[in-house]
Amino acid sequence: MFNDEATIYHIILAAFVMPVLLAILLIWFFISYQRKKQQNEFDRKDALLREQALIIQNQKVVENERSRIASEMHDDLGSGLTTIRYLSDRALKQAKDAEEVEQIKRIAEHSNSLVRNMSEIIWAMNSRFDNAENLVGYLRRYASEFLSDHQIELVFETEDTELATIEVGGEKRRNLFLVFKEVLNNAVKYSGTHHISIHFKTGDQIQIIVSEKDGKGFKTENAMEKGNGLFNCEKRITSIGGHINFIQTGHGTDVTFSAPLTS
Amino acid sequence: MQFYKAILIVSLAVAAWNKNKGHEPFPYFLSFMAMVFILEIPVDYYIQKRDISNYPLKNLFSKLCLFYYLFVFYNINKKKVWSRKLGFTIIMFICVTLIWQFGFQARNTIDIVSYNAGYVLLIPFMLQYLYEVIYRYPYFNVFIDPYLYFIFGILIFYTSSFPILGFINLLITDNPHYIIYFDLLNIGNIFLSLAYFGAAICSTTKPPSTISS
Fold first, then answer.
1. Alpha helices of chain A — where are they, by DSSP H?
2. C-alpha distance from A244 to closest chain B C-alpha (Å)
3. Which domain covers residue B39, as residue numbers?
4. CATH number, residue B84
5. CB contact under 8 A, B170 and A21
6. Across chain B, what does the average pLDDT equal?
7. Selection from A105-114, A160-169, B139-148 with the highest mean pLDDT
8. Which residues, 6+ apart, have CB-to-CB distance to A181 below 8 Å?
9. Count of domains forming chain B
10. Which of A42, A156, A196, B202 is deepest in the core (most CB within 10 A)?
């Protein structure tokens, strides 16, 4: 058996030196790994910021394009349609027989309808109007004109004061307006009411409540048989993540429809 | 029972459980753990009971472990351009060590030649892994990579045991206190069995799509 104390001494020395070397290696590894992790975190946040900036930039581009198209439609098509309406009104005054009058009236009605529809599309497309204040104003104006044509009294209430700060996109505004239009149309057609109140609320969602004050209401099943109006209402409100409810009260039908404010 | 053997039993159980679920940190890991378990516990117990020299068993066992470690490191590098040369080198090493074991190795001594050569061969692979984690591969959570625990366990085991096992034949003397060296080896064995346990546990998590795939 070999018994060299010097060799044993060197072996034992190695037994201490090697773990020290290993410890240095492990410390180097963990420090380098931590640095790499921090760099990765930094790169990830940087990439996220860039992505967000790109999204915002793209949104601005889309909004600018929407406004441009809305403006051009208003300028080019709007003026043309208005001219058609004006000319048809003049032709109506100069019409000689009943059939001619009837045809010119139809032209005038179609052009009026086109002007209204286009106006609604331009309103929905224009990103300048992407807020709740504008939506409320538009609904109020429409309801006021439509119901006054049918001698129905309107009460329009809104609870919130900072509507201008609440963002509502074009698609949402258009769908809410079309549902609102259909609900008023049905109330006028079927309920026989002379008083309608409209309540507009915001919070986590936009909520619009159309209440008949002295009507007989309408059965949704009957309305569905008569046309696709209510079916389209449900489809539109669902497409923007919202809900619609019909509640028969003692004085008519209360229609509540809502849409979330965040997409 | 020595503490590291208890860890081995738990590691085997975890490896078997994960294999049943279709997870394995490295190819043939369960087979390797089964081999380690059988040789370290029942066979070792039988040999001690019969008062037979366990040197041949330990020599064979250390070689089998070494071969598996080399296979694992080959697995890490199998997609590299030089993987075929690596595979050839490993096969040559296996052949040479087996020839040495059965042809030249004295019966009642520890085969420090294969042990030292294997350690020298393993070090570059372990350093390669650590280097590539930091400088080559994109960032990933290395603490769920089974290779990390495997490599750390082997590094600690070999670093702590090399001065003893590498020169064991010189250290064994008439002085009965040489037994302490084998007690010190058990500390390294604990880290090695913890390495197996860490690798077995990590196979339950999705491995990073870099080194381990």
1. 5-72, 79-94, 98-125, 132-149, 170-186, 220-226, 229-239
2. 45
3. 3-212
4. 1.20.1070
5. no
6. 82
7. B139-148
8. A142, A146
9. 1
10. A196
